[in-house]
Design a protein that fits this description.
The structure is a single chain. This protein is an alpha+beta fold and about 425 residues long. Among the domains are: about 90 residues, 3-Layer(aba) Sandwich (Rossmann fold), CATH 3.40.50.20; about 60 residues, Dna Ligase, domain 1, CATH 3.30.1490; about 100 residues, Glycinamide Ribonucleotide Synthetase, Chain A, domain 4 (Alpha-Beta Complex), CATH 3.90.600. The protein has 14 helices and 22 strands. The strands form six sheets. A five-stranded parallel beta sheet has the order 3-2-1-4-5. A hairpin with a 4-residue loop joins β10 and β11. α8 packs antiparallel against α9. The chain binds adenosine monophosphate (AMP) and glycine (GLY). Glycine (GLY) binds next to loops. Adenosine monophosphate binds next to β9 and β17. GO terms for molecular function: ATP binding; metal ion binding; phosphoribosylamine-glycine ligase activity.
Length: about 425
């Protein structure tokens, strides 16, 4: 009779709720969304750490799972653990891996983990000096959490200098990471990290840019697919050995061991895989295409990871189906999303994970930027892309979506024929 509390309100938390519900009796989501309520999950309107602790105690929650980074960097895991409550995620100190790019870059450089060369500066003068002598393009990253909007790539010194003028007008001592521009395909590794064991999920590829052809501004993620067959297992194993395992060892050596989900953003450069960034939670929309591949009990496995016991986390065969997920967003996303738009009706074999939705006149309508993720699985990417887009295009929805999610995988499949 286990009960689980999931914290968050997006499509990622929706698929976690569905996956936990395969084996536990009670799944609560705080604060959740109206789509989750419609699917039968109990949502609780709480967002503050002390209130969540009181809820977990009063409902005798067996496991709390945190979807996004904000509460992790605030120290929710430390606070729950201080009360003797089971929670899966990194402590505040370990969550710095996502919370501070300056912290992470200095750790990577100290332990020789492959990543873009970088310097951290904390003043306008220092930044100008570096930018005047840097190779271009150059990458400039704000230090703290920025919801995917903290990274700028500049082609010329003039635009870079104008960019940092604005930053230092707002904060005289803003910490900035200035780094080398890397090139190559990107993929993400998701690792379930326990006290004694680490389990890696099938890799995924996200599409962060808003528009087709990887143009437009960065978003939280417009679509993803998994597994990524055109990236060889040898590359993945090299990335695990050179980018994932050493950072976990480094965190241990530093006295801040990492537990929870480690998301390693990898760029496959000509010099091998390098770290773009780490996140301390699952990706959204990547969770929506990775979790359905789990063929064992999520709850039991996470409890075993927390307890330092052996786990048996298993995934569908790598040559089984490919999962393709497309984010449907409100027009105006990411800056000014329209609310109150009706939602498309999709065929039964499309998995729908709701995010920014609300109930209005007895039906679900849009209430946020990313509204839902639509996921399909098929034996090939060509079939998945053809069938999912046929279903989406037939709905004539007002929501917007990219039309080319999975383009690299489709091109690789077609080239093999
Ligand atoms: P991040 O928020 O660090 O994941 O960065 C967002 C996106 O910016 C990444 O997915 C990359 O596409 C791009 N990016 C970040 N760092 C670099 C880099 N050093 N070189 C080239 N592209 C980068
Ligand atoms: N999809 C990217 C992220 O979750 O950060």
């Amino acid at each position: 009779m286990a009960s689980v509390l999931i914290i968050g309100s997006g499509a990622r938390e929706f698929i976690f709720a569905k996956t936990f519900a395969n084996s536990v009796d009670h799944v609560f989501v705080a604060p959740g969304n109206a789509g989750m309520r419609e699917a039968g999950f109990e949502t609780v309107d709480l967002t503050e750490i002390p209130d969540l602790i009181t809820f977990a105690q009063s409902q005798q929650i067996d496991l709390t799972f945190v979807g996004s980074e904000a509460l992790l960097t605030e120290g929710i895991v430390d606070a729950f653990q201080a009360e003797g409550l089971a929670i899966f995620g990194p402590t505040k100190a370990a969550a710095q891996l996502e919370g501070s790019k300056a912290f992470t870059k200095s750790l990577l450089h100290k332990y020789d983990i492959p990543t873009a060369a970088s310097v951290t500066v904390t003043s306008h003068d220092e930044a100008v000096q570096i930018l005047q002598n840097h190779a271009y393009p150059v990458v400039v990253k704000l230090d703290g959490l920025a919801l995917g909007k903290g990274v700028s790539i500049y082609e010329h010194p003039e635009t870079a200098l104008a960019g940092i003028d604005i930053i230092y007008q707002q904060d005289e001592h803003a910490p900035l990471v200035i780094e080398e521009f890397m090139q190559g395909p990107e993929f993400s590794i998701f690792s379930f990290v326990g006290k004694e064991q680490v389990v890696h999920a099938p890799i995924a590829q996200d599409h962060k840019r808003l528009l087709d052809g990887d143009r437009g501004p960065n978003t939280g993620g417009m679509g993803a697919y998994s597994p990524v067959r055109w990236i060889g297992d040898d590359v993945v194993q090299t990335a695990i050995k050179s980018l994932v395992e050493p950072v976990l060892t480094a965190m241990q050596t530093e006295g801040t061991p990492f537990e929870g989900i480690l998301y390693t953003g990898v760029m496959l450069t000509a010099a091998g895989p390098k770290v773009i960034e780490y996140n301390v939670r699952f990706g959204d929309p990547e969770a929506q295409v990775v979790l359905p591949q789990l063929t064992s009990d999520l709850y039991q496995n996470i409890m075993a990871l927390i307890a330092g016991k052996p786990t048996s986390m298993t995934w569908q065969d790598a040559d089984a189906d490919v999962y393709l997920g497309v984010t449907l967003a409100a027009p105006g996303y990411p800056l000014n999303p329209e609310k109150g738009l009706s939602l498309p009706s999709l065929p039964n074999d499309v998995q729908i994970d709701y995010a920014g939705v609300k109930q209005q006149a007895n039906q679900l309508v849009s209430n946020g930027g990313r509204v839902l993720t639509a996921v399909i699985h098929r034996p090939t990417m060509v079939a998945a892309q053809t069938d999912l887009y046929a279903a989406l295009d037939q709905t004539h929805t007002d929501l917007v979506y990219r039309h080319d999610i999975g383009h690299q995988a489709v091109a690789a499949e077609l080239a093999e024929e």
